[in-house]
Design a protein that fits this description.
Mean pLDDT of chain A: 86
Distance between the termini of chain B: 44 Å
Helix content of chain A: 55-70%
Helix content of chain B: over 70%
Largest sheet of chain A: 6 strands, antiparallel
Mean pLDDT of chain B: 77
Low-confidence stretches of chain B: 278-299
CATH architecture of the largest domain in chain B: Alpha Horseshoe
Number of helices of chain B: 17
Oligomer: heterodimer
Shape of chain B: elongated
CATH class of the largest domain in chain B: Mainly Alpha
Largest interface: A-B, 89 and 100 residues
Low-confidence stretches of chain A: 642-661
Number of domains of chain B: 3
Radius of gyration of chain B: 36 Å
Structural class of chain A: alpha+beta
């Protein structure tokens, strides 16, 4: 009964979504408050039913009900409870159900907390949200139904892919989906604005918290995924420019641009049309990511061609929503009123530059990801676009971006003073030079680019602090007064500083890890000693152990430095019998922000085991950066106050002002 | 009955969600407006002035700018107050909810759902049935014991067939090898080892498996299992006459009440051989029709419960299906798969397998012809 009730709840959610996509629009056209309010109650009911459906699937997985095909194919009665639950979204059908659950969650949130929205805007937003939801309900029910049954249930399931049996699966996909799907709200707002033909600063105010929330989750989701790949895949790499990773990076880049352009729109009523376009593009890229990951087109174009139902369905959704929204944009955007004016050197100008660089970076990722696919479809030729392409295109775009980041917050709205900003950034510049000199001296004769990059990172971090110091007039007025000003600063300002500093911190981690990473790869017998980066690692021995649904071989290493025992590390190799697959469990030893990393290979006939040992200096900063960025986002989000950018009255004769669009 | 009651309750709840706002008098002021936002922004400027974050001149400029927007917004909202909607529209919407929702929901659900199937949580099933959970624990215990005493031949002998039945073929192969090493060689164990090897190869009699069956026959020429599988090997190699000869010899020599008789007879019919003298119940329903399935390991299933056997057969069919997905050239395999689905009563899957088969061999005219003929024999038009 649980299985069938869950199935029926999903079907009812589809019915409600269909009503929600039509009735409120009609209500808005005839300005009937009751009809518009239908959007609200149906969105909440839809959330209720999808949540029930999702809960049903979780229950089925937990109780190992193998009469449900999805449970049979992805679960095992001996799996630990946590992985029984996370296994719900560790497969295609379940993860699509999670996708729509989160979509319904955001719809429900807008319905519940959207009291401050004008009635017709809320009706439109929820209706657009329901269009997306309907399409995905249909997709799930028709091509990827998680509630299909097996008449003669098998006694044991086929287990979850061992690589996914990890705590990472509990956190990464829900985070990522909260980010991906969260952008559907900005999309709905944009389409609603186009439908209403009206858009203003208030619109940006309403849409910004949602965008920010989605951006926070996406940032954390990507960082989490990267760390998961780092410790689970056993190669010590943290970013592979893999199409699946790129699929999540593209919405992040576009979403970051959106965040900044929405700021301009909210404070200065400018860049309106561009912001709407970015909203549409960001969610389109989220949909594209879903298509890339879920249609199987990445594993092989041919695999996609042999079982095309799913892929073609998502492709259809993609075409309808992207094509539809862009057509609507082309049709209605020219009717939107143009916004305010500003000079090229101004806060707005800096944000435009930010947008230009971010969208260009996004475009390069887009090309690097889709070009090989297009080529394979057209000519059958298989090429892979890897790290070199992205390094060569990404770096030249991010260097100017990072150079510009500290300037942005220091420039005034409407017309800024670049020289003044540069003077105020003097401290950051000096800090950068000092950092560069120190690193150069320390690693004399080593890499030449790395010290420059570290200097850049120092510039970004200290620049962010400079902005704060400037605002609280540090050292210029008594300290107690400065502190009081610091408390009075809007949280959004703190958020900006944290997020920008996070960029610099991540950059330090990336540069250190890639430049001064040292490794030992070889085969070791018990009592052999490997030396890496000043550490001595002695292999004490190999022990087999039986886990709940796997057997593992644990190697024990004693780590010493200068003769002093530091710790014991126990990497292992697990064999999962049901799927006949094995995983490597790397052992990590954290020392400050640096890590020692051991992962095991195969045991050879003479009892030696292949090991890979890495020392990764400051590697953790790669993930501290994004966490700091997300924290900054959270601070901004908690700043409910909203201010209009205060323009400085022009003193000199008006210079040539430039239109925003 | 309770299921339908629950469905009815859920439907009523969903309809209520649509009807509720329709039944309420639409309050014109429900919902915020931009005016509020701009007022808020104006208040913000004053707060910032007090905190000393903004200069007086800039604050004035900002106030003017916001006020301008505030006036425009107030103008707009004056025109845009929601009107009292028409009763007709609301009635239409209510009708859509009352009729449309149940129709959509039942339409989709009846096409996709399986309302007659109850739940099968594993805990309850193992309470009723043979208790699969303790078996798994037992296996783990025995494995742990053997970990410490790897030369315990009797332990390996007990463990091996259990592993084989659980589908852990690779472990079963290891266990059988150990049993042979520590508990002595025998025809039975060789044959079982061969069968486990077959199992791990997805039902294909590999060269390794065949070697084991041959060793078993060398030890004991009458070993039924080894002989049967050697016949199957011949059949899989396409030497149907050899297979038939082997199986005919088995039937002629074997005791008349041997449990494997129906199985071998069915296999014989499959390769087109004639069944010697007494041939009762060939192709009879029930267990006997099962040998048409991908591999002969069904012999091992003869003393299983009905549900277990069903699961095992399904597992084999699934393995065959996956094998064919990677290597679609095997026409015989495709035919076996289609036949298996038909026997299991899954006509839809049979049809989709058929379509896959056509696609897989479409480039090879010879194979396509072979496939079509085979399908005709199955009673499906070619």
């Amino acid at each position: 009964m649980i299985a069938e009730s869950g199935h029926y709840a999903l079907v009812l959610a589809l019915g409600l979504a269909l009503i929600q996509s039509i009735v409120p629009i009609i209500g808005a056209r005839w300005r009937d408050a009751a009809l518009m309010n239908v959007a609200r109650s149906t969105a909440l009911a839809q959330l209720l039913f999808v949540a029930a459906s999702f809960a049903a699937l979780v229950t089925l997985h937990v109780t190992s009900d193998f009469s449900v095909a999805n449970v049979y194919e992805n679960s095992h009665s001996l799996k630990p409870l946590l992985y029984k639950i996370t296994g719900v979204w560790g497969n295609h059908e379940g993860s699509m159900l999670l996708w729509v659950s989160i979509l319904a969650l955001f719809g429900g949130l807008v319905a519940a907390f959207g009291n401050n929205l004008p009635l017709s805007l809320r009706a439109h937003v929820l209706a657009v949200q329901a269009w997306v939801a309907s399409a995905f309900y249909l997709f799930i029910l028709i091509t990827s139904n998680p509630f299909l049954r097996i008449a003669n249930p098998p006694i044991e399931g086929r287990d979850l892919n061992p690589v996914l049996q990890d705590i990472g699966l509990a956190v990464h996909p829900p985070m990522l989906y909260l980010g991906y799907v969260g952008f559907s709200i900005s999309f709905s707002f944009a389409v609603a604005a186009l439908l209403e033909g009206r858009i203003d600063a208030a619109w940006a105010r309403w849409v910004r918290p949602w965008t920010l929330m989605a951006w926070i989750f996406l940032t954390l989701g990507i960082a989490m995924g990267s760390y998961w790949a780092y410790y689970e895949l056993g190669w010590g790499g943290w970013w592979f420019w893999d199409p699946v990773e790129n699929a999540s990076l593209m919405p992040w880049l576009a979403g970051t641009a959106l965040l900044h352009s929405a700021l301009v729109m909210e404070k200065r009523n400018a860049l309106k049309v561009w912001t709407v376009l970015l909203s549409i593009l960001t969610f389109s890229l989220s949909l594209l990511g879903t298509f890339l990951v879920r249609s199987g087109v990445l594993t092989s174009v041919h695999a996609f061609a042999t079982d095309p139902t799913r892929g073609v369905f998502i492709l259809l959704i993609l075409f309808v929503f992207i094509g539809g929204s862009l057509s609507l944009y082309a049709w209605r955007a020219p009717a939107l009123k143009q916004g305010g004016l500003f000079a090229p050197i101004s806060r707005e100008g800096a944000l435009v530059l930010n947008n230009l660089l971010l969208t260009t970076a996004c475009a390069t990722v887009f090309i690097g990801t889709l070009y090989p696919l297009a080529l394979e479809v057209l000519t059958g030729e298989k090429i892979s676009v890897g790290a070199p392409f992205f390094n060569f295109t990404f770096a030249p775009l991010f260097v100017p971006l990072l150079l510009a980041v500290p300037f942005g917050p220091l420039l005034a709205w409407k017309r800024g003073d670049l020289l003044g900003a540069a003077q105020r950034l003097m401290v950051a510049g000096i800090a950068a030079l000092v950092a560069m000199a120190l690193v150069l001296a320390w690693t004399y004769g080593g890499a030449t680019l790395a010290p420059l990059a570290i200097g850049l990172a120092a510039f970004v971090i200290v620049g962010a602090l400079c902005d704060l110091a400037e605002r609280i007039a540090l050292f210029r007025i008594p300290l107690s007064l400065s502190l009081r000003r610091a408390r009075g600063l809007p949280r959004a300002t703190w958020g900006t500083a944290f997020a920008h500093a996070g960029l610099g911190i991540a950059l330090i981690g990336i540069v250190c890890e890639t430049t001064w990473n040292s490794e030992y790869i070889g085969s070791m017998k018990p009592d052999d000693v490997a030396r890496v980066a000043g550490y001595e690692l002695r292999l004490d021995g190999l022990n087999p152990r039986q886990g709940p649904n796997f057997r593992e071989m644990i190697a024990q290493f004693t780590v010493t430095r200068d003769g002093e025992k530091v710790s014991v590390m126990t990497p292992s190799k697990r064999n999962f019998t049901t799927r006949g697959a094995s995983t490597t469990e790397a052992a990590l030893l954290t020392r400050g922000a640096s890590q020692l990393y051991i992962s095991l290979g195969d045991v050879s006939a003479d009892g030696a085991i292949a090991v890979r040992i890495y020392h990764k200096p400051l590697v953790l900063m790669i993930w501290w950066g994004p966490v700091l960025m997300a924290f900054g986002g959270l601070l901004s989000l908690s700043d409910r106050r909203l201010r209009v950018g205060a323009p400085k009255p022009a003193k000199a004769a008006a210079r040539a002002l430039q239109a925003a669009e | 009955m309770t299921l339908w009651f629950v469905f009815a309750l859920m439907t009523v709840a969903a309809i209520f969600a649509v009807l509720w706002p329709l039944s309420r008098r639409g309050r014109a002021d429900s919902g915020g407006s931009e005016v509020v936002v701009y007022r808020d922004q104006l208040a913000e400027i004053d707060r910032d002035m007090a905190a000393g974050i903004i200069g007086a001149a800039e604050a004035d400029a900002a106030r003017i700018e916001i006020s301008r927007r505030l006036l425009a917004a107030a103008d707009q909202s004056g025109q845009n107050t929601p009107v009292q909607g028409s009763l007709r529209l609301r009635r239409a919407a209510a009708l859509v909810a009352l009729v449309g929702l149940p129709v959509i929901a039942s339409g989709f659900y009846l096409a996709l759902g399986s309302p007659r199937l109850g739940d099968f949580p594993l805990a309850e099933r193992s309470k009723v049935a043979d208790a699969n959970q303790p078996l798994a624990n037992l296996v783990a215990q025995v494995e742990a014991h053997l970990e410490k005493n790897p030369t315990d031949g009797r332990g390996w002998t007990v463990l091996a067939p259990v592993l084989s039945r659980l589908g852990r073929y690779d472990d079963a192969v290891r266990a059988y090898r150990n049993a042979i090493t520590y508990a002595g060689d025998s025809a039975d164990r060789r044959a079982d080892l061969g069968e486990a090897l077959m199992g791990s190869a997805g039902g294909v009699v590999t060269a390794d498996a065949k070697a084991e069956f041959e060793r078993a026959v060398a030890l004991n020429g009458d070993d039924a299992k080894a002989n049967y599988f050697l016949g199957l090997a011949a059949e899989q190699d396409g030497r149907k006459a050899d297979a038939a000869a082997l199986w005919q010899k088995m039937l002629a020599k074997g005791p008349s009440d041997a449990p494997w008789r129906p199985l071998v007879q069915a296999a014989l019919v499959r390769v087109g051989g004639t069944v010697p003298d007494v041939a009762p119940g060939v192709g009879a329903p029930g267990g006997v029709s099962a040998p048409a399935l991908p591999d002969g390991a069904v012999a091992a299933a003869k003393d299983m419960s009905e549900a277990d056997r069903g699961a095992m057969i399904k597992g084999m069919v699934d393995r065959l299906a996956t094998r064919l997905k990677t290597n679609g050239d095997d026409v015989e395999g495709w035919l076996r798969l289609v036949r298996a689905y038909l026997v299991m009563g899954e006509r839809d899957k049979a049809m989709s397998a058929l379509a896959d088969a056509r696609q897989a061999v479409a480039k090879d005219a010879d194979r396509l012809r072979q496939l079509n003929e085979g399908l005709k024999n199955l009673g499906l038009d070619g």
